[in-house]
Amino acid sequence: MFPQRLDSPLAYDIAKAMVDGFNRHYRLFRTESARAKHRFETADWHGQQRAQRERIEFYDLRVRECFTRLEREFKAGALPMDVWQQIKLHYIGLLVDHYQPELAETFFNSVTTRILHRTHFHNDFIFVRPAVSTEYIENPERTARPTYHAYYPTRENMREVFKQLVNDFDLRRPFEDLDRDTGYVLQAMKRRLGDAKLRTNFQFQVLSGLFFRNKGAYVVGKIINGFTEIPFALPILHNRHGKLVIDAALFGEDDLLMLFSFARAYFMVDMEIPSAWVQFLRSLMPRKQRTEIYNALGLAKQGKTLFYRDFLQHLRYSTDRFRIAPGIKGMVMLVFDLPSFPFVFKLIKDYFPPQKETTREQIKAKYLLVKQHDRVGRMADTLEYREVAFPRERFEDDLIEEIRKFAPSQLEISDRDGDGHLEVIIKHLYIERRMIPLNIYLQEAFDAGPGDPHARAQIERVVIEYGNAIKDLVAANIFPGDMLWKNFGVTRNGKVVFYDYDEIEYITDCNFRRVPEPRNEEEEMSGEVWYTVGPHDVFPETFGPFLLGNPQVRAVFLEHHADLLDASFWQAHKERIAQGHVYDVFPYDQKKRFNPTDGETDLS
What we know:
The protein has helices spanning 11-34, 36-41, 45-55, 58-74, 81-94, 101-115, 158-167, 178-193, 253-259, 274-284, 290-296, 300-316, 360-372, 397-406, 438-448, 453-475, 521-525, 543-547, 551-561, 567-578, and strands at 148-151, 203-207, 211-213, 216-225, 228-238, 244-246, 250-251, 323-324, 333-337, 343-348, 382-391, 411-414, 423-433, 436-437, 478-479, 488-490, 496-498, 505-506, 511-512, 537-538. By secondary structure, it is of the alpha+beta class. Strands 1, 2, 3, 4, 5, 6 and 7 form a 7-stranded antiparallel sheet that branches.
């Protein structure tokens, strides 16, 4: 029961200190995001990658700072629970006119759960549900930048209005030929609209800030015509002469889902009212959950909060049970799922087979590397949680025994909160979007038989995608390590994505070698490796026997990706990356590009 009176002299001061801690965090977050524009204008690609990586750490640093202050100034951990109830009420009051209340509530949760032991904090002390609405938040100041701008062109002034739309972003680097690029975009738009009559409300609504990631900047908005709304995005790149070009025109939800994929790095974009940006983006991509949109905008902690709320809601309205995930079991990770929920849960085992020379901390470091790295649409993002409680009755007994056998240190079964119901508490786990394992996807095609034309097309498409995925990873300076089919998955839109990170390495840390010629007949006939192999040595020509046992798979792979079996391919790209080159990897179909000679299309 919350107190009816606020009588603690410390409660308001602590709440104000926590709001101040959050405001400092978001101010630094916005500042770093805004600097992305200058880095793009000056082609500081390494600085852009570094900033994207470092910004991820901002949140935990500010939570730690706030925790330290509260302990030092207020001895917060020793305060009675009724004071913490008052702190939360004061905090809610301080958020009434705040521009990022949902983020501030998550910050409060992060600080509070760090101070209070898990057995002491309950739902009364944290924001399990949002307390402050994010609807219709606006900055009333006349000088404030709005969330989006609206433009109202006619057929006669369409070109001029569109050029104004682009120029309003005030990029401090000249376009090679904005008039030409505008023509390309309007032609593409005309093809999309067809012969549709321009209605009274015809307009462009465009988010007021550019989205920056890697070497690109993106205009994001929608065309409104009558009852029709068409999402669009315009990638702006540097061409080989250092001038700006609009590289493509992307239309429709599917194109934007690719751009905002969970397998890509987070955008940098300066937002005063993030909930308004998320609401606008959801109008473009209604199939994309708010969790994933917050993640894509670099607000991963808010994404985690929303994911957990969605998960609890799903548990309430479902009855199926957690089980061992289907597929080949991993040597390092134990994976389970809930069939009705589109995610998998992964925990690190307590011990590994002898061939896996690794530790728990090394594996966690690999997952952190992926979180901070450019995932180029080919590595699944993960949500990391600690001390997660699940209802015991929702777990199959076989799964409990599997965890007891392989990861007993990560398992607790108890009634921690004293409500009379046993819980399965997992000490540390990762959560990933569920995909169809590539080996299962291929096996389904094999089972259909070689005479099935759909199966043949499925094999060809996915084997080409698999090779493209590896080449995109190479462009991002990532060697996947274990390249077996089972370590890749197929997404709902047919993309092949890598998701097993315990053996990944930087390309620049690997030594790509050819298998030496045998020096005598004994070595030639030997079934064992007779040459020396260093800890970072990789022999690409040896990939074939493990990957290409099926004749149809082998034929497709050799036709499109035989270079992946040649050490010189890897050596050449390692050398170029080591020299500081940053590859272009495009989050859209190459066929959509207006001028494919600008930039590099792929690594083949």
